[in-house]
Amino acid sequence: MEDLVKAIAEKAGITEDQAKQALNTVIEYAKEKVPPAFQGMVDGLLKGEKPGLGGMLGGMFGK
User: Fold this and answer.
1) The pLDDT value given to residue 40
2) Comparing C-alpha atoms, which of 28, 7, 29 is closest to residue 16?
3) Where are the domains of the chain?
4) At how many degrees (to 10) do helices 53-60 and 36-46 cross?
5) Residues whose CB is less than 8 angstroms from the CB of residue 5 and which lie 6 or more positions away in sequence, other chains included
6) I want to staple 19 with a disulfide (CB 3.0 to 4.6 A). Which of 9, 28, 35, 60 is the partner?
7) In angstroms, how far is CA 21 from the centroid of its own chain?
8) Distance (Å, rounded) from C-alpha 61 to C-alpha 40?
9) Run of H or E including 19
10) How high is the mean pLDDT in each 10-residue block of the chain (63 residues)?
């Protein structure tokens, strides 16, 4: 996720702290918009995990 923070900071012309704050705002917004069963997938994608059936089922069952 640090690569994304650096890219945002560079492209937007802001500090990395500001970019991190902006990214966290977007992440929280996205989590609010998806069903609870898929919120874990948002976290997984940001960690670089590829979504799959296992991730969807884990999200659905709170794992």
Assistant:
1) 86
2) 7
3) 2-60
4) 130
5) 16, 19, 20, 23
6) 9
7) 13
8) 10
9) helix 16-33
10) 93 97 93 88 82 58 54
